[in-house]
Amino acid sequence: MNADALAGLDLLASAVLIADAAGRIQYANAAAENLLDSSVKALSRQSLATLFVNGDELAALCEQAKAHKYADIRQDLALERGGREPLHVHSIVSVLDGGAVLVELRENDQQLKLDREERLLDQSQANKELIRNLAHEIKNPLGGIRGAAQLLELELPPLHLTQLREYTQVIIKEADRLQTLVDRLLAPHRRPHIVGDVNIHEVLERVRSLILAEFPSGLAIRRDYDASIPEFRGDKEQLIQTVLNIAHNAAQALAERIEAGDAEIILKTRVARQMTLAKVRYALALDLHIIDNGPGISPQIRDRIFYPLVSGRDGGSGLGLTLAQTFVQQHMGVIECESRPGLTDFRILLPLP
Questions:
Q1: Cβ atoms of 83 and 343 closer than 8 Å
Q2: pLDDT digits (tens, 9 = 90+) for 109-141
Q3: How is the beta sheet containing 101-107 ordered, strand by strand?
Q4: How many domains is the chain built from?
Q5: Model confidence over 303-345: pLDDT tens digits?
Q6: Are residues 224 and 335 in the same domain?
Q7: DSSP letters along 155-203, please?
Q8: Which of 112, 231, 255, 288 has the fewest beta carbons closer than 10 A?
């Protein structure tokens, strides 16, 4: 196959595979590598029939197209991948010279995904405005309440000082607790965005050491890094906080598995090509996954986990994922989550130079 003739296929948003007459994959474009989470080199060792758990359906479609010499044949398929969500795709098989076939795979849910991302961005912006306004409205009277309680404590008669001081201290401590909460809500909007060169694997190694220091036994944190990922411009401390918030939530959700000794978190990095992030198309993007084998996120809150003050565990502040989303969006990226019992996968996509 002429490499120059195939170069234009890398610009397509849909995944394209070319297989020879025996069904062995000869070519995959950038979108196919991204969709199948594999490189051209790895894909070229496989056949269409073995690419998926039910790959025979795709192979049969190719044979049908060749046998009847159709210009192309189209069908919706649910292609199963071991241990992962099935790919719901619209497949188009075209017959080439010499019995080779060109297979185009278009995700049926791609448009739904783009619509969901746009809705989440709008929702996040509305949440940030609400948080800022609400926090400022709370902050002003809170200082007055605390100050009044302190003045009241100074005016208490000595005879009842110990007994009544207990009540004024409750007011002061609760006012301080609310002040801390307000400060955390406002933190991402106050702190300056300090931009420098970021090596994402240095960020992940820092998070890994912090989590293992808190959970020294029963938890394995596995690395699955793509060493070819270049440095990019970003705020290193914000990215550390982002990954740490997600990984720490995962470790806390793994409490039972940690006791059993089989808890696992996977830190995985890849390069994604031709990605649309926040309505902008990028040639390259960092594809970062934080995966755990915990119980999964409750279906009742799965669609609201990035909302402020929504938490899946007792005692949680419900701010960790909200802050993570804010920091990712400040880097022009997106964050999403897939979760089911036994596997929760937080995916962060950031543009690369």
A1: yes
A2: 655 566 666 666 666 666 666 666 777 677 778
A3: 25-28, 15-19, 101-107, 87-95, 72-79
A4: 3
A5: 778 776 666 565 555 677 888 888 888 898 988 888 888 899 9
A6: yes
A7: HS-GGGHHHHHHHHHHHHHHHHHHHHHHHHHHHHHHS----EEE-HHHH
A8: 112
Provide the residue range defining the domain that includes 68: 3-108
Q: Which residues contact 136 (CB under 8 A, 6 or more apart)?
A: none
Least trusted range by pLDDT, from 86-95, 164-173, 183-192, 240-249: 183-192
- Among residues 147, 169, 190, the one where a domain terminates is 190
pLDDT band at 233 (very low <50, low <70, confident <90, very high): very high
How do strand 72-79 and strand 25-28 relate by DSSP bridges? unpaired
Residues 260 and 152 in one domain: no
Same domain for 144 and 266? no
Q: What is the CATH number of the domain that holds 62?
A: 3.30.450.20
Strand order from edge to edge, sheet including 280-292? 219-224, 263-277, 280-292, 343-351, 334-340
Residues 130 and 243 in one domain: no
Rounded to whole angstroms, what are the CA distances from 144 to 133, 147, 189? 18, 5, 24
Q: Are 182 and 139 in contact (CB under 8 A)?
A: yes
Tokens of 182: 């307000």
Do 271 and 218 have their domain in common? Answer: yes
- Regarding whether 289 and 228 lie in a shared domain, the answer is yes
Confidence of residue 254 (pLDDT cuts 50, 70, 90): very high
